[in-house]
Amino acid sequence: MRTVRYEKLRPDEILHVIKTNPIAYLAIGPLEWHGPAMPYGTDPAAAYEAALSAAKQTGGVVLPPIYAGTERERSEEILDAMGFQDTSQYIIGQDFPANCIPSLYFREEIFSLIIREYLRLLVKQGFRLIVIVNGHGATNQWEVLNRLAIEFSNECDCFVHVTMAIDSDDPEMKYEGHATRSEHAVQMYLHKEDVDLSLLPPKPEKLRGCEWGINGAMTYALMPNEDKTVEEQCDPRNATSEAGERFFNAGVKKLV
């Protein structure tokens, strides 16, 4: 096929896909704080590139990325794990007080309506497998997407599958969290000009999650290290485009 990008296809080309291989990919992610060195579109960019790479192997079409995502307030337990002294603060997602600008988080009910409408319209056009490539790991975002997937898969003539954009069985990935090494590395591989590691303090200064909006998986598991800083194994300053290529390709392979 000439291209897998839906917006570039003519009506006859879209109809051909629907008749022969009716797969539609939806790449989703918010415009969100990922530390000072990373672009706000980190999540949807990774999801969209993964969807494009997968569609070239499986067939189907890829819708333009959906720049939307949702978040909830942080619990006292997670704020403590992130190193906040005042755990009674009302903090949504990664919008920490030290950040210079907030994220563009949608209210959960608005986010749900947007994705629901995309699914409804794609089913109406005749797509039978809709793959939601999610770039954002928030619990409530996953709950919304999975709820819609179950509903549409059972009430409509289609199957909706939800998957993470960059996910693999690489043992290194188990330490990754938000804006850590893997996300920096993938962006360096995909869009190197958008990443500037010089905006992070040089080593050996440690990165406190509550100050930089960067937290590893052990923090989210409520098992932070003693000083509640970013662990060495997922420190974004260790990111390279070579590692990003490995993480990205492993994620696409799992997606396919």
Q: What is the assigned CATH homologous superfamily? A: Creatininase
Q: Could you say what the CATH topology is called?
A: Rossmann fold
Q: Main β-sheet: number of strands, strand sense, barrel status?
A: 5 strands, parallel
Question: In percent terms, what proportion of residues is strand?
Answer: 5-15%
Low-pLDDT residue spans: none
The overall strand count is 5
CATH class: Alpha Beta
Shape: globular
Structural class: alpha/beta
Number of individual domains: 1
What does this structure look like?
- This protein is an alpha/beta fold.
- It has a single domain (6-255), classed as Creatininase (Rossmann fold, 3-Layer(aba) Sandwich).
- Helix content is 40%, strand content 9%.
- It has helices spanning 11-20, 42-58, 76-82, 108-125, 139-155, 181-190, 209-212, 217-220, 241-255, and strands spanning 23-29, 61-62, 66-67, 129-134, 159-164.
- Strands 1, 2, 3, 4 and 5 form a 5-stranded parallel beta sheet that branches.
- α2 links the parallel β1 and β2 (61-62).
- The two termini are 18 Å apart.
Notable features of this structure?
5-stranded parallel sheet; 5 strands; Rossmann fold; globular; alpha/beta
Outline of this structure?
This protein is an alpha/beta fold and 256 residues long. Helices cover 40% and strands 9% of the residues.
